[in-house]
Amino acid sequence: MKNEIKLFEDFLVQKELKYTSRREIILEIFLKTERHMSPDELYDLVKKKDSGIGFATVYRTLKLIKEAGLGREVDFGDGKKRFEHCFEHKHHDHLICIKCGKALEVADDRIEKLQEALVKRHKFNPVHHRLEIFGYCKDCDKKPPRQGGGQGG
Amino acid sequence: MKNEIKLFEDFLVQKELKYTSRREIILEIFLKTERHMSPDELYDLVKKKDSGIGFATVYRTLKLIKEAGLGREVDFGDGKKRFEHCFEHKHHDHLICIKCGKALEVADDRIEKLQEALVKRHKFNPVHHRLEIFGYCKDCDKKPPRQGGGQGG
DNA sequence: CTGACTGCAAACCCTTTGCACTAAA
DNA sequence: TTTAGTGCAAAGGGTTTGCAGTCAG
Asked: Which residue of A has its CA nearest to B91?
């Protein structure tokens, strides 16, 4: 993790920005938390270490972290931004439980390969992609909510 | 399309709701427009037919359309809701151009199959999923913006 | 008639921004 | 000292909701 922190510092220096203690706290907590966090969740965690930090700083720092390539934005369809760090994580897809909200990270090389072929067929130049599968995780699947037998697809 | 309109009417009747002319106008325009529309785009189109329709009605009707299974929500990461209709459309993925914003619909059975296997391996019970690939479409790829050679991964 | 539908505008939620003060370099 | 960083609160942008009038059944 030291590595990532150094990387962030270099990133800031290069952009003639400053490496402050608040940015460090936010980055550290962001990196060490293995969860897909919304800004307010990160804010709550960060407040425990430095109660003076404001919401705006969390947002602004998250933006910098993203620019530095240490985090990426994910979207779980709940109307908020969510972020995951790229520290010790390669590209992966998500299985998102619509009951408990947890997101499992999964990877499948064969799917990636087929995606590459797919974009090639369409002469599309990909920059990034995301695959998200929504449903019930194995814990929640034991008792899925049933109302009218609703069936999606 | 007549079929879908009938389906919507039945859906409303079954829920003891009313089939109104405004709902009909909104549904018709939604179905006949082959684009991924945000509520405000649909609102603009709908206003041309019935200038008295309000924003709220568009939102509320879109929600009903979704419930009726005639539309689904998609997310192109631009901070707004977007909808596509399910009329004469099977499941598909999206290639979204980050320059011009157009979304190409694509389908690949082998990817779908691998996804099924993937969730099975994780004992995950899928309800729906989405695959979105962001990048440059073949028209925009001729002159992609280059700044610092940014590389996502 | 009854109860759902509607437009309007205000409320909401999350995110961003302007300002005056603070802290890196 | 110089310039960026910061908290606060207000502003923004998109979406939802409460209300009183309207309309379908």
From this structure: A153
Task: Say whether the CB atom of B52 is under 7 angstroms from strand C.
Answer: yes
What tokens were used for A106? 């999964």
What's the distance, CA B13 to chain centroid?
A: 25
Q: How confident is the model at residue B143 (pLDDT cuts 50, 70, 90)?
A: low
Question: Which token pair is B19?
Answer: 């089939």
A90/A139 Cα distance (integer angstroms): 25
What radius of gyration do chain A's Cα atoms show?
Answer: 18
Helices A2-14/A55-67 angle, 10° precision: 90
Determine the Cα–Cα distance for residues A115 and A106; give it in Å rounded to an integer. Answer: 16
Q: Is B137 on the interface with A (CB under 8 A)?
A: yes
Helices B39-49 and B55-67: crossing angle in degrees, nearest 10, is 110
pTM to 2 decimal places: 0.79
Judge whether A127 is closer than 8 Å to chain B, CB to CB: yes
Distance of alpha carbon B19 from alpha carbon B52, whole angstroms:
17
pLDDT tens for B61-111 read 999 999 999 999 988 878 899 999 988 888 999 999 887 888 999 999 999
At B90 the pLDDT is: 86
Nucleic strand D under 7 Å from the C-beta of B19: yes
Query: Does residue A75 contact residue B77 with C-beta atoms inside 8 Å?
Result: yes
Helices B21-32, B2-14: crossing angle, 10 deg rounding: 140
* Nearest residue to B97 via CA among B129, B143, B128, B130: B143
Domains and CATH numbers, chain A: 1-89 (1.10.10.10), 92-138 (3.30.1490.190)
* Percentage of residues in chain A having pLDDT higher than 90: 68
Distance CA A107, CA A20 (A): 36
Interface check B5 vs A, CB under 8 A: no
